[in-house]
């Protein structure tokens, strides 16, 4: 069964056009997971994770804490974690 070039080009265009949507879905689901894990780890509900909170609830964040806490204020926010994850 031979695939005409025109159909092959159309198939490639469809795949190419939906690939950004698939990436967005991955980013969205990843950010949702980060949000949920952040909320669980933020034991005092101040919107910040200290190193101790990160070690207890988000070990991967704790392992990269000094990189995520680029301004060196001793805590990381959800926005800082998401920015690092989306790089």
Highlighted features:
0% strand; mainly alpha; elongated; 87 residues; 5 helices
Describe the structure.
- The structure is a single chain.
- The chain is mainly α.
- It has one domain (5-85): EF-hand (Recoverin, domain 1, Orthogonal Bundle).
- The chain contains five helices and no strands.
- It has helices at 5-41, 51-57, 59-63, 65-68, 78-85.
- Helix 1 (5-41) crosses helix 2 (51-57) and helix 1 runs antiparallel to helix 5 (78-85).
- The protein is elongated, with a radius of gyration of 20 Å.
Specify the helix fraction band: over 70%
Number of strands: 0
Radius of gyration: 20 Å
Name the helix and strand elements from N-terminus to C-terminus, one letter apiece. Answer: HHHHH
**Helix/strand class:** mainly alpha
Named at the architecture level, the CATH assignment is: Orthogonal Bundle
Tell me the CATH superfamily.
Answer: EF-hand
Average pLDDT, to the nearest integer?
A: 82
Q: Termini, distance in Å? A: 43 Å
Q: List segments where confidence is low: pLDDT < 50 over at least 5 consecutive residues.
A: none
Highest-level CATH class? Mainly Alpha
What's the CATH topology name?
Answer: Recoverin, domain 1
Number of domains: 1
- What best-fitting shape do the alpha-carbon axes yield? elongated
Give me the number of helical elements. 5
Share in β-strands = under 5%
